[in-house]
């Protein structure tokens, strides 16, 4: 188990109790995402955490696979699902690499607050493209800290080295869009919430 997974396992209970930082922006993201969802769709969300977003979207689609590398996060998500079951929703401990065999299987993939926590966002985006059907939708919400808090890079590196925080990749919005286009996505929607300018919310579709 790598250090980031260990961090999220240790933090899972605290994370589950933490209130949403910007409820208004979160609700808008849910509403915009749902414009792209259809009852016939098979959806996958990676880095699902404790499952809050999956529980909202799952009733609107045919099937919804929500994954996270942290077993403790998935334990909490499954307990939440028991309190309010959603037909077609499954929570699994898995990484994107574990799903490589499911080529062009999904109509939509969500990666929320996760790309900046991975060492190679560009290769992750290529994996997502391979898992999507042609015309499939990718919804992402990413902290683009190179644009807003680049000065924190050495602090973040030290904190990760000391096992105090997970790994953080310092991306810019321009780099994120470049990686999406290079992989074969067309960007359909962009939004930087006024109250949380670190975050870049994007919706893109698979073009090839």
Layout of SSEs?
Blueprint: H1 3-17, H2 23-34, E1 42-46, H3 52-57, E2 63-68, H4 71-83, E3 89-93, E4 106-112, H5 121-131, E5 132-143, H6 145-148, H7 153-161, H8 173-183, E6 185-191, E7 199-206
Parallel strand pairs: 1-2, 1-4, 2-3, 4-5
Antiparallel strand pairs: 5-7, 6-7
Helix pairs in contact: 1-4, 5-8
Please describe what this structure looks like.
The mean pLDDT is 94. The chain has one domain: Vaccinia Virus protein VP39 (Rossmann fold). Strand 6 and strand 7 form a beta hairpin. The protein is globular. It is an alpha/beta fold and 208 residues long. Helix 1 packs parallel to helix 4 and helix 5 runs parallel beside helix 8. It has a seven-stranded mixed beta sheet, with helices on both faces. The chain contains eight helices and seven strands. InterPro entries: SAM-dependent_MTases_sf. Pfam families: Methyltransf_23. It is an enzyme of class 2 (transferase).
Structural descriptors:
24% strand, 208 residues, 8 helices, globular, Rossmann fold, seven-stranded mixed sheet
Shape: globular
Total of helices: 8
Looking at the overall shape, the CATH architecture is 3-Layer(aba) Sandwich
| Radius of gyration, CA atoms, in whole angstroms | 16 Å
Low-confidence parts lasting 5 or more residues at pLDDT below 50?
none
Highest-level CATH class: Alpha Beta
Here the CATH topology equals Rossmann fold
Strand content: 15-25%
Give the ordered list of helices and strands.
Answer: HHEHEHEEHEHHHEE
Mean pLDDT: 94
Largest sheet: 7 strands, mixed
């Amino acid at each position: 188990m790598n250090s980031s997974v260990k961090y999220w396992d240790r933090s899972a209970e605290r994370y589950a109790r933490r209130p949403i930082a910007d409820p208004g922006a979160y609700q808008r993201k849910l509403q915009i995402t749902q414009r792209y969802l259809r009852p016939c769709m098979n959806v996958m969300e990676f880095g699902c955490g404790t499952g809050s977003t999956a529980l909202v979207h799952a009733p609107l689609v045919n099937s919804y696979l929500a994954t996270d590398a942290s077993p403790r996060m998935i334990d909490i998500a499954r307990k939440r699902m028991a309190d309010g079951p959603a037909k077609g929703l499954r929570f699994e401990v898995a990484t994107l690499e574990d799903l490589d065999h499911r080529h062009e299987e999904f109509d939509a993939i969500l990666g929320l607050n996760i790309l900046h926590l991975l060492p190679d966002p560009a290769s992750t985006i290529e994996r997502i493209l391979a898992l999507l059907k042609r015309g499939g939708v990718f919804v992402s919400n990413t902290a683009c800290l190179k644009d807003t808090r680049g000065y924190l890079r050495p602090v973040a590196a030290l904190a990760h080295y000391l096992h105090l925080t997970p790994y953080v990749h310092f991306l810019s919005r321009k780099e994120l869009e470049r990686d999406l286009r290079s992989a074969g996505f067309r960007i359909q929607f962009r939004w930087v919430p006024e109250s949380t300018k670190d975050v870049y919310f994007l919706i893109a579709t698979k073009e090839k």
